[in-house]
Amino acid sequence: MAVTATVLFVLFTVVTTNKNTTSNNLNTKVGDQNVTYNFMENYTTTQPTEFDSTSPTPSSSSTEEPVQPTVPAKPLPASGRLLTPVTNVDSVCPCDKHKDVCDINCCCDRVCSEEVALFPSCSVDKISGKKMLCSRHVASYSLGSTMDGYSELQSSVRKETNYDIFCIQSQNRVDGLSHPSPALPTDSSFDSLFKELTSFIFGSEETSGQVSSAELQASSGYQYGDVMMTAGERGMFMLPAAAVTADCIDNSPAAFLKDQSSGCSRHVILEQDCGALPALSMDTYTNIQIFAGKNKDAEVVPVEVASVVLQSVDGTQTELKISGGGNVNPVLLNPSLCAHVVLKVVYMMKYNPAGEIVNVSVSLLLGFVREGELSLEQKFHITFVQEDGEEVAVHYSGNPGYVVGLPLVSGTRIAEGFARSMDPRDTLSLLHSAEDQDCLQGTHQRSPVLFALDSVSGCTLRLEDTANCSLVFQLLLDVLRGPNHAQYVASFGNSPLDSPIDWVPIKNNFNPGEAHICSIPLSLHLEIEWIKYGSLVNPQAQIVSITEVIQTNTTRLDVLSGSSSTLSIMSSVAFIPVSSTALPGYRATPTINGKLPFDFFFPFV
Predict the structure, then answer these.
(1) Please, what sign has the CA dihedral across residues 490, 492, 494, 497?
(2) Which residues pair with 585 in a beta bridge?
(3) Gyration radius of the chain over CA positions
(4) In the chain, what percentage of residues exceed pLDDT 90?
(5) How confident is the model at residue 544 (pLDDT cuts 50, 70, 90)?
């Protein structure tokens, strides 16, 4: 019996096309609901098919080698940009259901140019591009009211920033957001694909031209964005920063000429980490030597300690005097309290026009950490200043009106106008309260007067120190007013120094005169009157008056203190809004332009 076997081979052919389709989402807001509209963009790319799917056919005569995947001819660019969308958001109108007919309450319908005056509201008031992009355009539609009570269309297109850490900033594909399947790596193409695909670094910027290696060797200084090199085991200058989470990443390099401010947190176990964790010690941030340039024979610039401030448990800050280049290391005072821990680090780097670092200084803030705290918060800041340039920029407290919580801008009158300190801490201030703070002994910390924030502080005066009444009077007055007593305060947060009308004098009617008893200042109070200036839509805070009120004693100090040997001296500030009630304004008084026919009074006239 013969058995005949028939083998049927089926050949599958995979056909690929080069036509890519990109789906774009339009996110619109209808009332309180978010509705997503989709529209399609079709375009054809010119790139060849990335790979071919083949099926080997059995043959008794010969064995064929499989076809190798095709490797793209052009490598991907090192960095890229987002393609310009074909459809603009201001040309898309989801509520336009009928062609050449005005749809009710459809503010984006271009046919409704005349009917929009009768619309009570907009059915679609916001249209935006894809949410996955870090920057997208948003078209907004709203209705305003005219003087006649009709609606008036107000439309705008603005660029909106997406702060999601997984948003798309740039991409290095010429296909836009539609990515074809990549080539399959093989033994022969793996090296070329690896070199091609790993050449892209996320966040790298495009350069207008490539710099030759000879030019790089000839340039001894750093260039913008270069990583600064250090001597020792580190190799690079690191500035801790937060990554995806708030935890500190210590191996984050700082780039040349890129000012950076960062904050992060650490989980600390006091018994183990107080004296052992390098990130808590100031020696980690001061014992650094940076190469002035990127050449191997460049000079080494050490980090100089500009200032070290110790912050107590209650928040009082005191500058430490460290001599001989010594450091203050963390110490475990008790199982639940670690002292001298680094809380803030501020670097100031000076460089010359050749790109070489000439000086590096650091200021540190040390403090205490308790066992009960969830995490240790640290802040880091680095600033680059050119040699023989302006070191500190002028700080403003608003543009133009004051911002709540920012310090008041104060100055003194000179012949050319007004002068103010570059240091933001050298402004109108009050005595900073601390436990058992003596008015006449020790150092006195001061706090700047913050706009729209009332505060009260003070100190303690011992009656045994009031033997010389006239001397105590002047000393107390200087303590309450501060070392640099301000004479004027800026009416706006960015008042120019050469405009006298924008500065408000500090009024003071205090006159000690002659007293038969020992008279000393018991309190200093600042009354600051401010108004909301400008439009109701965006009012600006303006200071119109400031008065200094000093109160002295009218009876003997021993009678005033009662049976106590101490007396409390107070300082305070109060912000008083004096804005008048807002009234609607018109450009011109409405008039009636009525004309009667010439024979209206016929036949009487």
Answers:
(1) negative
(2) none
(3) 36
(4) 16
(5) very high
**Which residues are CB-neighbours of 602 under 8 A, at least 6 positions away?**
none
Q: Same domain, yes or no, for 377 and 411?
A: no
Q: State the DSSP string of 541-564.
A: EEEEEEEEEEEE-SS-HHHHHTT-
pLDDT in tens, 446-466: 888 999 999 999 898 888 888
Give 488-497 pLDDT, tens digit per residue: 999 999 898 8
Please tell me whether residues 380 and 443 are part of one structural domain. Answer: no
| Angle, CA 254 vertex, CA 248 and CA 260 arms, to 5° | 80
Q: What region, left, alpha or beta, does residue 522 occupy, with left being phi > 0 and alpha being psi -120 to 50 degrees? A: alpha
Q: What does the mean pLDDT of the chain come to?
A: 77
- Residues 425, 530: one domain? yes
Co-location of 265 and 165 in the same domain: no
**Does residue 245 lie within any of the structural domains?**
yes
Q: Are 516 and 472 in contact (CB under 8 A)?
A: no
For CA atoms 435, 441, 445, 448, give the dihedral sign: positive
Tally the C-alpha atoms within 13 A of residue 78's C-alpha that lie toward its C-beta.
Answer: 10
Long-range contacts of residues 305-309, Cβ cutoff 8 Å, at least 24 apart: 305/361, 305/362, 305/363, 305/364, 306/348, 306/361, 306/362, 306/363, 307/363, 307/364, 308/282, 308/363, 308/364, 308/366, 309/363, 309/364, 309/365, 309/366
For the cut 80, the answer to whether the pLDDT of residue 410 exceeds it is yes
Question: Within 13 Å, how many C-alpha atoms sit on residue 348's CB side?
Answer: 14
Asked whether the predicted pLDDT for residue 158 surpasses 80, the reply is yes
How many CB atoms lie under 10 A from the CB of residue 487?
Answer: 13
- Dist. CA 223–CA 356, nearest whole Å: 9
Domain boundary among 154, 170, 186: 170
% residues pLDDT > 70 (the chain): 76
In a domain, residue 315? The reply is yes
Structure tokens belonging to residue 464: 């045994």
pLDDT at residue 184, as a whole number: 80
Please answer whether residues 66 and 56 qualify as being in contact, where contact means their C-beta atoms are separated by less than 8 angstroms.
yes
- Section 256-277 average pLDDT: 87
How many domains does the chain fold into?
A: 3
Which residues lie closer than 8 Å to 588 by C-beta, 6 or more apart?
none
Confidence of residue 15 (pLDDT cuts 50, 70, 90): very low
CB distance 122 to 141 below 8 Å: yes
CB within 8 Å of 310: residues ≥ 6 apart: 317, 318, 319, 320, 328, 340, 366, 367
For residue 457, list its beta bridge partners.
571
Same domain, residue pair 346 and 451: no
Q: Which domain holds residue 251?
A: 226-386
> From the centroid of its chain, how far is CA 123?
35
| Two tokens, residue 469 | 């009444």
Separation between Cα atoms, residue 106 and residue 98, nearest integer Å:
11
Check if the beta carbon of residue 381 is closer than 8 Å to that of residue 347: yes
